[in-house]
């Protein structure tokens, strides 16, 4: 029986959930118009903003009032002000611009996939023709282009833990599986000048990885393996293998099979470093909602993916033949880091 002091479901709460897409549309629209960029320098009224943005004045006023209603602006008289924090997160020239995340997390493809959630629940996974595991899906090009900042400290956390160990090795050969933007391998390579990084991803994604390596002065230490991580020859052996933010796309059995496969490319005594969305065994949807909400995204985008628990990651690494799994978190790292050794 539900305790009497449990939260009560209310009509306003249900209205807010049902109309949640309107907030997303407001944010997407304001970012696409670069509206926050205009307000960063000085407050403005709707008419002046409409002239600069080349939009309809009445529609601009409605948009500005709605952005104020959801807490992104403040209105004083006829003028609209950008709230503190907006200059960092909502202005396109800021290094921490959140618009890149919106471009991905609120992309047309993700919206369309969520429309099929009822079918995914009935079916047990994605029912879309194009999904997260479709070979050479162009969504992953956008991901590589717009999420190198999104590591939220996880790449730095990994380099902090691996660089001192790497400095003791005779060689530092690194395989970065599903490398995308390459931030994890390249961050370590900047710390350890002897490191060479082999980036594995789809060929269309590796074009972006290659450009990132060149921009960071790492072109001579970056190498590329194009293809399916479950099938393409891995080369090696490597001192370190990285698998970052990909195991949640698969069931525990499939993810373990991938870990076992890449484990054959790790030198004896070498390390595997895994980064991923996780939750602790004591977490519940009430105390830590984000990983459970992320599982919904995986439900509509993959065949059998979901957020795995810390215990599941440990179990997978052990089953794949690794030992002495250590876990790390950082203040700026959204994702958890696992490091384990190949005997």
CATH topology of the largest domain: Rossmann fold
Largest sheet: 7 strands, mixed
Number of domains: 2
**Roughly how many Å apart are the termini?**
50 Å
Overall radius of gyration: 23 Å
Organism: Actinomadura harenae
GO biological process, one term: methylation
Active site: 248
Keywords: Methyltransferase, S-adenosyl-L-methionine, Transferase
Spell out the blueprint of helices and strands.
Layout (H helix, E strand, L loop, with lengths): L10 H8 L1 H14 L1 H7 L2 E2 H8 L3 H13 L3 E4 L2 E4 L3 H4 L9 H7 L2 H7 L2 H7 L15 H8 L7 H13 L5 E6 L5 H9 L3 E7 L1 H13 L6 E5 L11 E7 L7 H12 L2 E11 L1 E2 L9 H13 L6 E2 H10 L3 E6 L7 E6 L2
Parallel strand pairs: 4-5, 4-7, 5-6, 7-8, 9-10
Antiparallel strand pairs: 1-3, 2-3, 8-12, 11-12
Helix pairs in contact: 4-5, 7-10, 10-13, 11-12, 14-16
InterPro entries: COMT-like (IPR016461), COMT_C (IPR001077), COMT_dimerisation (IPR012967), SAM-dependent_MTases_sf (IPR029063), WH-like_DNA-bd_sf (IPR036388), WH_DNA-bd_sf (IPR036390)
GO molecular function: O-methyltransferase activity; protein dimerization activity
Keywords: Methyltransferase, S-adenosyl-L-methionine, Transferase
């Amino acid at each position: 029986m539900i305790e009497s002091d449990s939260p009560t479901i209310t009509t306003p709460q249900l209205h807010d959930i049902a109309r949640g897409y309107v907030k997303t549309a407001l944010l997407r629209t304001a970012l696409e118009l670069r509206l926050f960029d205009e307000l960063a320098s000085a407050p403005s009224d709707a008419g002046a903003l409409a002239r600069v943005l080349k939009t309809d004045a009445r529609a601009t006023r409605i948009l500005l009032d709605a952005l104020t209603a959801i807490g992104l602006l403040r209105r004083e008289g006829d003028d609209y002000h950008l709230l503190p924090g907006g200059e960092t997160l909502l202005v396109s020239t800021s290094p921490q611009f959140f618009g890149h995340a919106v471009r991905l997390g609120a992309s047309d493809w993700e919206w369309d996939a969520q429309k099929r959630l009822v079918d995914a629940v009935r079916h047990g996974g994605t029912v879309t023709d194009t999904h997260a595991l479709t070979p050479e899906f162009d969504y992953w090009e956008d991901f590589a282009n717009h999420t190198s900042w999104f590591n939220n400290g996880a790449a730095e956390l990994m380099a902090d833990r691996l660089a001192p160990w790497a400095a003791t090795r005779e060689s530092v050969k690194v395989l970065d599986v599903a490398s995308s933007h390459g931030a994890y391998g390249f961050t370590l390579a900047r710390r350890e000048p002897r490191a060479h990084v082999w980036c594995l991803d789809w060929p269309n994604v590796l074009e972006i990885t290659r450009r990132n390596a060149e921009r960071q002065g790492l072109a001579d230490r970056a190498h590329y393996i194009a293809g399916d991580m479950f099938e393409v020859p891995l080369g090696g052996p490597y001192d370190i293998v990285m698998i970052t933010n990909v195991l949640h796309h698969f069931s525990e059995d499939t993810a373990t099979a991938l870990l076992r496969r890449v484990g054959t490319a790790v030198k004896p005594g070498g390390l595997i470093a895994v980064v991923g969305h996780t939750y602790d065994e004591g977490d519940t949807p009430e105390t830590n909602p984000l990983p459970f909400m992320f599982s919904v995204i995986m439900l509509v985008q993959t065949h059998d993916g979901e957020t795995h628990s810390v215990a599941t990651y440990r179990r997978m690494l052990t089953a794949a033949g690794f030992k002495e799994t250590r876990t790390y978190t950082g203040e700026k790292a959204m994702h958890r880091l696992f490091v384990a050794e190949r005997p």
